[in-house]
C-alpha cells in the first residue's frame, strides 16, 4: 500500500488535474494520473486483491478509488460494498469507471442498475444508467427481456434534468439500442415516445439517441 501511494505522488501532475477539472471531474482529492497509467499499474504491478481494494477505497483519493475498482475481485463484492461505494461517488468519471471496471461483473449488476436508476442521489442515479450502458456492451449473455425492462425505467426516469443524469440515461438508451436488431427497434420506439413528452430533458434524450440509433452506420452493423 505504501509503495502505491509513493507511486501516485511521483506521477502526480498539476496539468492533468487542471485538464480533469475542465471536464467537470472533481479534483479535490485527485493526483492527476491518467487512466492509461492507472490501467498499466493495475495490470502489470498489482495482482487482484479484494482486501487491497478496500484499503485503496478507504483512502478517499480519487485515483486510488479508481485503482480499487481495477484490482478488486468481483466474486468478493457483495451488496453492502456496492451500496457503500456508490453512496460515495462524487464525480462522473469515478462513477463510470467503477461501473465499467467492476460493478457490471458482479452478480448484483442488473438488480442495482434498476434500483439505482430510480434513486434520487445524482451519482447513484447516474450509476444505475451507467450500469445499463456497460451491461448492454459487455454482457454478451444478457437476455433482451432484461434490457426491455431497462427501457421502461429510462422512460419513467427521463425527466431528470441534471446534466450527469440525463447524459447517462441517453448513453444507456443508445447502447441498448445498438445491442441487436430487436432491441434497436424497441429503443427507437422508446426514443420517439420520449420526444413526445412535455419534459425538455426527455425530448433531448430521445432525439439525441434516435439520431444515432437510426443512422446508416448503426443499421448497417446490425444487419451484418
Structure in a nutshell:
The chain is 70% helix and 0% strand. With 224 residues, the chain is mainly alpha-helical.
Which structural category fits the helices and strands? mainly alpha
The level 1 CATH classification of the largest domain is: Mainly Alpha
**How many distinct domains?**
2
N-to-C span: 48 Å
Q: Give me the CATH superfamily of the largest domain.
A: Leucine-rich Repeat Variant
Count up the helices: 14
Helix content: over 70%
Describe the model.
The chain is mostly helical and 224 residues long. It has 2 domains: 1-90, no CATH class; 108-224, Alpha Horseshoe (Leucine-rich Repeat Variant). Helices cover 70% and strands 0% of the residues. It is built from 14 helices and no strands. The chain has helices at 2-11, 14-22, 35-44, 50-58, 62-71, 79-86, 92-101, 109-117, 122-138, 144-156, 163-177, 181-195, 200-213, 216-223. α5 (62-71) runs parallel beside α7, α9 (122-138) runs parallel beside α11 (163-177) and α12 (181-195) packs antiparallel against α13. The longest helix has 17 residues, at 122-138. The protein is globular and about 55 Å long.
Features:
about 220 residues, mainly alpha, Leucine-rich Repeat Variant, 2 domains, about 70% helix, about 0% strand, globular
Amino acid at each position: 500500500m505504501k509503495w502505491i501511494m509513493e507511486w501516485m505522488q511521483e506521477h502526480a501532475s498539476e496539468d492533468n488535474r487542471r485538464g480533469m477539472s475542465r471536464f467537470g471531474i472533481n479534483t479535490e482529492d485527485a493526483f492527476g494520473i491518467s487512466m492509461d497509467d492507472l490501467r498499466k499499474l493495475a495490470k502489470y504491478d498489482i495482482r487482484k486483491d479484494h482486501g487491497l481494494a478496500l484499503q485503496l477505497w478507504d483512502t478517499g483519493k480519487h485515483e486510488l478509488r479508481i485503482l480499487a475498482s481495477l484490482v478488486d475481485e468481483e466474486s468478493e463484492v457483495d451488496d453492502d460494498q456496492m451500496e457503500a461505494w456508490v453512496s460515495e461517488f462524487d464525480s462522473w468519471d469515478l462513477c463510470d469507471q467503477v461501473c465499467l471496471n467492476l460493478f457490471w461483473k458482479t452478480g448484483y449488476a442488473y438488480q442495482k442498475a434498476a434500483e439505482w436508476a430510480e434513486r434520487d442521489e445524482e451519482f447513484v442515479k447516474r450509476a444505475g444508467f451507467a450500469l445499463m450502458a456497460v451491461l448492454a456492451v459487455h454482457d454478451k449473455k444478457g437476455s433482451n427481456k432484461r434490457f426491455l425492462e431497462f427501457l421502461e425505467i429510462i422512460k419513467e426516469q427521463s425527466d431528470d434534468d441534471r446534466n450527469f443524469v440525463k447524459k447517462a440515461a441517453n448513453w444507456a438508451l443508445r447502447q441498448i439500442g445498438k445491442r441487436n436488431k430487436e432491441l434497436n427497434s424497441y429503443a427507437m420506439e422508446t426514443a420517439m415516445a420520449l420526444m413526445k413528452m412535455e419534459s425538455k430533458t426527455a425530448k433531448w434524450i430521445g432525439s439525441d439517441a434516435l439520431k444515432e440509433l437510426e443512422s446508416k452506420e448503426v443499421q448497417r452493423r446490425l444487419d451484418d
